[in-house]
Structure to design on (99 residues):
């Protein structure tokens, strides 16, 4: 039997949120100022998601992550730069830093 969700190209925000919750994954969206309001709204729809403003040269990415790292032990980072969406992941190894 074909599920109506199988016919869609992309999962809904609700489906993404449910899967992230199921797998205990949290997201930090690091986006430029022009996208901040959109992603702030998105974080309200995805449990465990946070958003931070990324400088144009991405020089503050580590600061954005370290501001939120105590909440996470393993997480993915999505960031938008020059109209490209990037995905990265970090594992917190201990209080001394990232690995």
């Amino acid at each position: 039997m074909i599920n109506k969700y199988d016919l869609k190209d992309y999962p809904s925000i609700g489906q993404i949120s449910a899967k992230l919750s199921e797998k205990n994954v949290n997201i930090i969206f690091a986006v430029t100022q022009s996208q901040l309001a959109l992603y702030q709204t998105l974080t309200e729809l995805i449990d465990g998601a946070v958003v931070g403003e990324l400088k144009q040269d991405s020089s503050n990415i580590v600061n954005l992550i370290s501001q939120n790292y105590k909440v996470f032990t393993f997480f993915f980072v999505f960031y938008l730069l020059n109209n490209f969406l990037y995905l990265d992941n970090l594992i917190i190894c201990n209080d001394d830093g990232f690995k």
About this structure: Strands lie at 26-31, 49-53, 74-81, 84-94, 97-98. The chain has a mean pLDDT of 76. The helical segments are 13-22, 36-45, 61-68. DSSP finds three helices and five strands in the chain.
